[in-house]
Amino acid sequence: MNGKPSTLSVIWVLVERDLRTLVRSPFILINRTIFFLIQLFVFAALVSKLATALGFNYFDFYSVGAVVSTITSIAFIIGEDLFEEEELGLLDYLLSLPFGHSLFVVGRALGGAVRGLIYVTPMMILVAYVDGYFSPAGVAASLAIIFVLATGISGLSITLAMLIRNANRFYIVIALAELATVRVSAAIYPLVFMPKVLQPVASYSPVTAASDLVRAIVLPGYTSGTYETVVLLLFVGVFFGLGSAFLFRKLEGGRFE
Amino acid sequence: MIAFKDVSKSFNGFLAVKDVTCEIYDKEIFGLLGPNGAGKTTLIMTMATVYRPTKGEVIVEGRSASAEPDRVKSMIGISFQDPKYDRILSAREILEWHGKVTGVEKSVRDRRIDEVLEKFGLTAEARKRTWTLSGGTKKKIENAKVFVQRPKIAVFDEPTAYLDVPSRLMVWDMIEELRDDGSTVLLATNMMDEADRMSDRVGIMNKGEMAQVGEPSALKGSLKGRDVIEMALDVVIPELTTEVSKVEEVKEARFEGSTLKIVLSNGRGLLPHVINLVSAKGGKVQSVNLKEPSLEDVFLYYTGMKLS
Amino acid sequence: MAGSSNATDVIERDFRVFFADKYMLVIMFINFMIDLGVSGLSLGAMLKNLPYSYFLYIAPGANLITATVAAFQSGRDVWRERIIQDTQQYLLTLPVPKNTFAASRLVSGILRSVVTTLPGTVVIALLYGLSLPYFLVGLLIMFVYSGAVAGLSIAAASMANSLELFATVRSTVQVYLSFFSTQFYPPGNMPAFVAALSNFNPMTWALLIYRELPGSFNGALVTGSLDVAQFLYLGALSAALMLAGFLLYRRTMEY
Are B77 and B121 in the same domain? Predict the structure, then answer.
């Protein structure tokens, strides 16, 4: 008779499974790296040439936001993976394995986040270098912040995958969620330039919190406080919880459509 | 008539169908038997003009599938092994669209859809998205496409997979009705009882080749020395085995306990003679069991393997 | 066998599948409004130093991006039919001539995209203050642009046998359309290699024509450089991409 696996070993097994897909998808890795470089050295460079009267370096501002928005985008993929697994009948198998469903959500969210972290580490290092920041400890701290964000985003993505039963609608909603998460935040533009009605909403965004925290580390003249940290941690907690709750609902309420 | 003339089909060097020559006559139910991977579906797809034969030709009602694919396709309707339709649509939408695109007139189409849904007990579920339905129900909808279309050539690939017994019987009746109405039916299956019951003729495929074609009874009859008579006697009479073995068509005779087991040809014809032999030796027959070769035995014989 | 009724049957199916979700149009419109109302307004507020409204400059691009997403669904449908659901086998057994079938998929891709972006096209027309004839020109641009993207997506779907490859091509196309075009920056601002790539981008040409349409509110964008050649160029580019999509899709069929 086999023994029950420990919590940590279950989490590692789940994370490892998601990392395998990273290794098996070199196209996507290369692709996202190139896109990031295009975002930075084409879009940001050209828009910052237009933004000469801002009073701050838009390229530096955007560069941090680009890393944060890239990991956000990558972390959303875990929900798509779950949806596809359900379509292929794999999810039933995974949920029949000898560990709790909450642990399953934790493992998958972490897997999505670790994947994202591996993707963006070179990007973060490049951005730090381009922005003239050379402290390894600071870069490591920035990556830790981005990792926490990615965990929450993965949880959000899993929640959506559990909640939405319709395949066509799911892919569109995920794209919408990704768009809203990044656009209604200070990743691409400072809050002060956003429509006034959205500024309070964006100020509570975990993407704003992560972007501001990293800018405070990497860029001179930027500050952040406890508020951003609290927002980020609350976001992660909520979406881990919701992801689990909706997974149970899915199990009781029927299959994906 | 459908004629496969020396048809082969390969995919990236793998020969899925090899040199198949076979005819399917008008208005017959032709059972295409074979295990998974035998090449049944590939052969069907060459007829349906989805695959182009690597070699050979498929002639359907006098028209070459290669030269006139659109004309050939217009005569064929297929119920696939795995249901192939858009799961986001409802059963009624799927059947309406299929009827429309295959040229069934609206009034006829609506009537047929209602009839088929009612026969399958799906009227209440007709407007539900099909991805919410069970596997058996999805299969019924797949079959229903062909029953609505009523094509000249109807192909059913494992039509009763996932179905319960009443539904299987229903589908069999509907297929026979289709044949009686003038369609030629190609029934691909690896269920022996289905092939035996339904088919006017059977083709046995294995590893891409057509091993044998014929009527089920003729194929069974072709297996000499495969009948088995099991005769329970009141007492063992050892010399009986020698006496029975002298009969020309007997292959083997032996006692298993007090049961005399005889392997022979023409078991049905020789049974009275064997009973007389037993009586002549003073034995009393308590029960008799005659086993004739089944289609499974036929398949095993011609292919040297068992079906799953 | 009536060819035109076969074509409408195929188009009908694509519409049914795409709009089976009654919220699809709403969700796509929300996507557009976020792009326009959040990013557009924010970037516009940020770049107030320009001699024209940056918000109005990038506004049509938001609708074209929605058209890109909608038109790319055609490729996604084709890919899923081929690789995941294997529905393509069933579709190919139907009495629809293969050329008609392939062409109809392109047409349905265009129509779905135009229908999806119609609310956005109306919004842009209102923002620009376009009269009805110029609104119709804007609609024509959406038709032609959608053809280019539908063709590109079906071409990609016909060549990609793996999800990774298809997803990669899809995102490459979307990045190319957005960043190697005049969606965010004028051509004079671009380094030579970006300008060169931008010239072959249907987004660039669609935007160029759109921004030149004489409306009540976009006067600062109009330079008077609009001519027929630009329409022809966009049309030719679109036709070339549609032909590529058609031919590559046909190549997936053995007959």
Answer: yes
